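Today's session is about reading a structure prediction critically. Students often jump straight to the picture, but the first step is always the sequence itself: look for stretches that repeat, for charged clusters, for runs of hydrophobic residues. Only then move on to the predicted structure, which in these notes is written as discrete structure tokens rather than atom positions. Here is the chain we will use throughout the hour.
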Amino acid sequence: MNPARVVESTDPEPALLFSCEHAGNALPAGVDARGLIESHWAFDLGAAELVADIARRLGAPAVLAPFSRLWIDPNRSPRDPELIVQSCGGHPIPFNLGIDAAEREHRQLRWHGGFHDRLAEEISKHASLRLLVSIHTFTPTLRGLERPYSLGVLHDGPSDSVRALFRALRSEGFDPRDNEPYSGFDGMIYSIARHGVESGVPYVELEVRNDKTRSTMPARLARALRSALD
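Below is the predicted structure for this chain, in token form.
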């Protein structure tokens, strides 16, 4: 189980770089997560395919985490109590219950750290970058609450890049929600914010409803992102 998978850039000077922290549901051999492994608790359904499609259209690089967030969540701070969850949706996670400090440190170094090291390396290769974009998906309902919108833009401040992206998304016919279904002010964009601050490149996270990731969504998002940079 690798900590990162990279989609290489076909543009020698890409303006965009994508990340997908919940791209896969891989677990180490012998670890059993039956009943959860194909669910949104394990990974963001449709996110990996969406990221790869948009990156291909724009010739941009992308870094994806193929391991399940049930094992460790690369979009959480190492200090976050939900870095390694004990239960999901009322279901206990047996392989996370009672782990000791050595096992926690091992997972942080091997998978969490491995993903972030690879993402930082990829960012450092491209001095031309103007925007880092993390892509996630969300469920149409959560705990009985409907989420009727198709797209949210998560950020931790109204930067010029964020404003331009909102304008471009509206021009593509989207009604983007501002910091929904989660908020960038609540630490929910840990990964892309960490690397944006470290690299000095503006950053944003897109949340796409997981039943809307195909059809025209990749083309429309690619056009909006290109337009935001222009």
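Discussion point for the tutorial: The chain has one domain: 5-229.
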